[in-house]
Amino acid sequence: MDERRTLAWHETLEMHELVAFQSNGLIKLKKMIREVRDPQLRNLYGVSIQAIEQNLRELLPFFPQAPHRDEEEEERADNPFYSGDLLGFAKTSVRSYAIAITETATPQLRNVLVKQLNAAIRWHAQIFQYMYEHGYYPAYNLSELLRNDVRNANRALSMQ
């Protein structure tokens, strides 16, 4: 197998999506586990946290191989996390509606789902625009995008 020094753009972007999604999820799980009282459910949260931490630890070493990566910058406030979480939710909504539409046989239900899919697409665009304007999602700057992923993953891993 031919080993490359630099990741391809397409795999770098997929890695970005995975790390961003899992970092936000890890932060959320670590905040929420404090409120979980049921021992069995709390254990499931613990197992989930460990699994996501392991995923991030395995993916982060690939970031230096990403094309055009710059040095790290200082930590920012929680707005990137909250808006990123909202963006992930909106993106999942768009995907879920698209899948549901392909499983729908009833025309009236399909019409409602298409209407709601279009609304979810507009909602996603609004959140993305907010994040882009505030520098939380530098979609046209791969180095900055990956730097944000590394910072967010490290923040999630360091949380107690």
UniProtKB/TrEMBL annotation:
Record's subcellular location: Spore coat
Keyword Transmembrane listed: no
Chief subcellular location: other
InterPro entries xref list: Ferritin-like, Spore_coat_CotF, Spore_coat_CotF-like
Sorted UniProt keywords: Capsid protein, Sporulation, Virion
Gene3D superfamilies: 1.20.1260.10
Domain of life: Bacteria
GO biological process: sporulation resulting in formation of a cellular spore
Similarity comment: Belongs to the CotF family.
Protein name: Spore coat protein
